[in-house]
């Protein structure tokens, strides 16, 4: 058959058959990268182009999106009305555009801040948000595409930790300036944790992670005020970003830089030869066998709380910032602390380099926690306990607590009413939080002795505050504040601080992270 006859035959092929051919070519192109064979097909003749081009056939590209990326999580979160064929097609083009930038290293290195213009910063912002949402929607395909095709690990390491990284973190440290965690830096730090490879993090990375993890006088463990139990976003929250997301311009809030910086920092400490082995659950371990059990790693609800925290006005009607039962059980992990005189110096405007010379100690600790809920269905007229002081984990001072196997009775001093909170039970509780209030109680031990734990969950963003009171010896009380990052298979991470310093002032602090005992 001559070339002209081939062209003539393609001219006569029905449109639906051409679509089947296009889909078959995309299947051949899988598992990684854009559908290059489809591009070759579009160049064969005008009639094929008129049927299969992006502008002429967005439903085709919507189908290709579903073949190439995970889509069921986005469908559940956004609804069918938002995930039209056109929206999926636009997202397909956007993802391959930003992944090509990651793959080429574009935007990760820039020795001169003046050469990085506003348009380039916006492109980096869009790319980081796109990658972040791909992770939060992952069921297996997205992570593979980012890690292997986009080579995002290398891009993130260069951007954050290279001496000439376009985040300019190391440049500011050299100038004895404490870097401000921009939206881009916060997103990149989260991605650094998701794709963590401790062996690839050099001195610059260690310095950066230590600074964000332990610089508590500069970097809060929450994007919202940690000492406020309110639902709204106070002025100190990061500004929202306007980015393209499934074909529309939408606004989102970046995650706090502290939790994922701590997870990476403690994992890095644990990977050094003289430390104990890591106990933290890695987000997506690179050495997980494709034939192994990846159910937990690729759970469609694993990053639901992280997704909810990006929304401008998170609320129960949109979905859970808290996954029921995510803290109930046995936890093990570490807490770190530094010499008190070194910490005191941090509060007197010393440069970040001072922190790098400070020695950090760490101890193992083990917690047993029980999660109790004031359910909306069983206590329709019962109001939650009043909000107590932040340094008392927001529990009313002197509140009596009597726990049994199915729940806990809470009673304020001088009040006759007893408020009943019900113990979480995986066989009876819904996944989505339908509670007016959540109280956590438990006990544990460390090298410093035994202790009890009690506290409360800020449902608007899932921020946990627990009071740790040692029951033997003069160790006193300490306040733990943080988030559960990922569930199932996640970590409880944040900072502890003393309870003597007023909550509006910087106290003596360290960081901690725990993972459920397997």
Automatic annotation (TrEMBL):
Superkingdom per UniProt: Eukaryota
Record-given protein name: F-box domain-containing protein
């Amino acid at each position: 058959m001559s070339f002209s006859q081939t062209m003539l035959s393609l001219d006569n092929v029905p449109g639906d058959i051409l679509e089947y051919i296009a889909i078959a070519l995309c299947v051949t192109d899988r598992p990684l990268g854009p559908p290059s064979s489809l591009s070759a097909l579009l160049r064969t003749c005008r009639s094929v182009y008129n049927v299969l081009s992006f502008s002429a056939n967005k439903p085709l590209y919507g189908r290709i999106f579903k073949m190439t990326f995970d889509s069921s999580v986005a469908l559940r979160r956004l609804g069918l009305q938002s995930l039209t064929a056109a929206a999926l097609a636009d997202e397909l083009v956007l993802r391959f555009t930003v992944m090509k930038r990651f793959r080429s290293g574009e935007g990760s290195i820039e020795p001169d801040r003046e050469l990085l213009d506003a348009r380039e910063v916006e492109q980096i912002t869009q790319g980081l948000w796109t990658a972040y949402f791909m992770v939060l929607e992952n069921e297996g395909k997205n992570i593979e595409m980012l890690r292997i095709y986009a080579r995002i690990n290398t891009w993130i390491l260069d951007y954050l930790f290279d001496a000439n990284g376009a985040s300019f973190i190391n440049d500011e440290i050299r100038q004895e300036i404490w870097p401000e965690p921009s939206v881009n830096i916060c997103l990149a730090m989260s991605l650094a944790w998701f794709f963590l490879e401790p062996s690839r993090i050099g001195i610059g990375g260690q310095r950066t992670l230590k600074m964000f993890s332990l610089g508590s006088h500069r970097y809060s463990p929450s994007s919202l005020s940690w000492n406020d139990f309110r639902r709204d976003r106070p002025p100190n929250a990061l500004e929202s970003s306007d980015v393209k997301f499934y074909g529309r311009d939408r606004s989102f809030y970046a995650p706090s830089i502290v939790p994922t910086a701590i997870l990476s920092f403690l994992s890095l400490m644990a990977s050094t030869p003289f430390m104990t082995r890591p106990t933290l659950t890695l987000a997506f371990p690179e050495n997980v066998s494709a034939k192994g059990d990846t159910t937990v790693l690729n759970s469609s609800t694993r990053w639901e709380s992280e997704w909810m925290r990006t929304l401008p006005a998170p609320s129960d009607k949109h979905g859970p910032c808290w996954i029921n039962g995510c803290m109930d059980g046995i936890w093990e992990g570490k807490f770190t602390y530094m010499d008190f005189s070194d910490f005191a110096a941090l509060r007197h405007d010393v440069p970040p380099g001072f922190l790098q010379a400070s020695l950090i100690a760490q101890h193992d600790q083990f917690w047993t926690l029980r999660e109790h809920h004031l359910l909306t269905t069983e206590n329709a007229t019962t109001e939650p306990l009043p909000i107590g002081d932040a340094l008392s984990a927001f529990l009313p001072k002197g509140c009596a607590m009597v726990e049994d196997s199915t729940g806990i009775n809470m009673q304020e001093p001088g009040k006759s009413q007893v408020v009943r909170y019900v113990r979480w039970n995986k066989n009876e509780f819904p996944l989505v939080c339908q509670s007016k209030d959540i109280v956590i109680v438990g006990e544990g031990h460390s090298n410093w002795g035994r202790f009890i734990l009690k506290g409360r969950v800020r449902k608007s963003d899932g921020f946990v505050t627990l009071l740790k009171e040692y029951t033997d010896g003069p160790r006193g009380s300490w306040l733990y504040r943080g988030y559960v990052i990922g569930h199932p298979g996640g970590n409880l991470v944040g900072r502890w601080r003393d309870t003597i310093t007023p909550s509006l002032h910087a106290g003596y602090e360290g960081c901690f992270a725990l993972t459920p005992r397997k």
